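Q: I'm writing up a methods section and want to include an example of the input and output format. Could you take the sequence below and give the corresponding predicted structure tokens, formatted cleanly so I can copy it straight into the document?
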Amino acid sequence: MLRFISLLMLIFATVASQALAAEIIVEQYDIEIPKAFNVPYHGLYADAFPDGFSIGIGSGLCYVGRDKDGARVFYAIGDRGPNADAPKYLKGQGKSEAAKMFPAPSYTPSYGAIRVADGKAVLASLIDLKNEKGALISGRPIPLGAVGSTGETPLDDALGVLDFDPDGLDTEGVDIDRQNPRNLWICDEYGPFIAKIDGYTGRIIKKYTPGKELPMIAATRQANRGFEGIAVTPSNKVLTAIQSVCDVDGKIKESKATFIRLLLLDPETGTVKQYAYPHNRDDYKKSGDAMIGDLATISETRFLLIERGKSADGKTRIPFYVIDLADATDISGVKTADGKELETLADRAAVEALGVRYATKTKIMDITDLGWKPGKAEGCAILPDMRTIAVTSDNDFGFTFKVVNPATNDAGEVVDKVGDYTTDGTGQIYYKGNAVDTKIELEPTGTASKLWLFTLDKRLDTY
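A: Here is the clean output for your methods example:
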């Protein structure tokens, strides 16, 4: 479904105290998903999902080109699949660890082509990801203790323990190889990993891992905050963005880090450079709240970047920036005077005193000012006119979860936070060590993935 909106965005120049008008044209689409692409579901709450789960698509996006009939074609990728928060898993001896519910545990992360034509955006194809040997992977977490493990134990919808998947991926970005357009580059939140894949078959050609092909500091990403965006430059270098500031010392809640790391991989030489992206730290309650949504290439050194998150006043902000790495410093191996990571410094001037130059950034727009309603913007692509930006959000597979028959705490208050409960793998839920009748149920939302097009009044390469 398409809706056109012409909005007048007023940008206030604080120095000159003048308002400059810039017209941005917005096209709004709900991504139509044929039922043939739905995720089969036969679990406890299958009666509420007679057609399975609607495929989640839009975690990452790139532009492919025009089809023969004039349709605009994009590649979009989904994430690790249907999942929900779960009680902490009691491993034994009173110890508990994070857990995640996977109601369709055999789901394979997938990507496909979206065609925009005749007032519709329709998912036209879907390809499953496979490991280097051609076997289907899943979105379940990689084993505990492995490099890049999130520390989560996978549970089914009855809270039984599932197997880990050594090849598991939580995919979040996609772009096209510039040397061979048959191949794609994807990124993941678990490892975080980068992978080059055969776009025709979904088979991984080469996987890049922290501590091997990638710097080990990438593995200090916050859990489920790994690589969130990927963009391939004209010379075929691969830029990825860690979603949030790295947890370099286990004190992420207190972190006042002034930047988020960007990694630039040169597949030809295997070298990796790292850059400091200055998120707008003062706009958030804490530095760890700032997130990057996706990246798209403008030139060899310039990129479009989504920054998003809840601001200090609780409002959602999704600004878009043009960033430039031309004069930025490669911070690989750069540490403080006492040998600590740069994220431990709370003052940008202190980082710059070490000879570090940050990436520069220029704000283009905040799409929440232009009518965007989803809380997340996860994929972006730039069309050839250099004025039109495509943005996607996924639908979280069309369901949410709720706490049924919640326990009450000592103050008589309802306990509705799933992580306050524990489970032992038998399906029983406990609160403070006592068995309770609480359940974590799934229910449909009917939410569609979104694809919006924003056409600016001037080219992105002029910012």
